Protein: VIP36-like protein isoform X3
Amino acid sequence: MAATLGPSGWWQRWRRRLSAWNGSRMLLLLLLLGSGQGPRQVGAGQTFEYLKREHSLSKPYQGVGTGSSSLWNLMGNAMVMTQYIRLTPDMQSKQGALWNRVPCFLRDWELQVHFRIHGQGKKNLHGDGLAIWYTKDRMQPGPVFGNMDKFVGLGVFVDTYPNEEKQQEAQKRRYSPGVQRVFPYISAMVNNGSLSYDHERDGRPTELGGCTAIVRNLHYDTFLVIRYVKRHLTIMMDIDGKHEWRDCIEVPGVRLPRGYYFGTSSITGDLSDNHDVISLKLFELTVERTPEEEKLHRDVFLPSVDNMKLPEASTQRLTSPRL
Ligand SMILES: [Ca+2]
Structure:
């Protein structure tokens, strides 16, 4: 389902901006470390970024806790350490999550995730990975990387264990060329509450796009960026230690309601890993819209993707409470 973009003007500006980033990643990091004071203009375009503290998380994690005054709430086995938040330790059958308490009403945003996945397990003997969420519900434990199934919103998965591939192997089946995915693998899914995430197939039936991301046991920092601008979802990663963003997923026509929650979660089963989140930084992006775009980009009440039919949500509660 992955799609590429036409050469629209704003996208060209984004591309230019990205290449500018590649050359000045250290500067960017320095800016980020000291940012939060007003807007930061990137490049010569019209785009401004504002760090939104109420949706961001960084050391020393003072806003994390269980109380109602905390900006971020922990769940399950998640633990606050001095240098990171550990969603799960490298032990079997653990699950943990971290949820922002403040709903996000921004139209255009970018979430930068600094994370680390590491453990004792050798190749393909580790799991299961972590997920990043922008969803209607929060703090709902379940089977999808520690979060509920049939979620409503966006899920981005950093899946470290190839369940489907292992099953195929056990049945002595081979993939046809071009079908096999190499793990760890990043994929994205948009759900209106009607779809189940198929864990046995690593989400293949519902993925919007994906890419291989060798992210385990690395000695340098690994980052993921989820950008949502003008209904265009872009996911990039910086996992090679080169301070460069690499494209992973691009999907136009993604309609996400406002007022959802950001979160991250992880689960281990028979196999395990340490799944650590070092920081989550949410930027408001200000972009210009033409009057036509303003009309087109009206608020929606259920997540959907253009040209992709999702089954109707089984629960009408999402839009109209049943009397
Ligand atoms: Ca998997």
Q: What stands out?
A: Residues 158 and 186 are 5 Å apart (CA to CA).
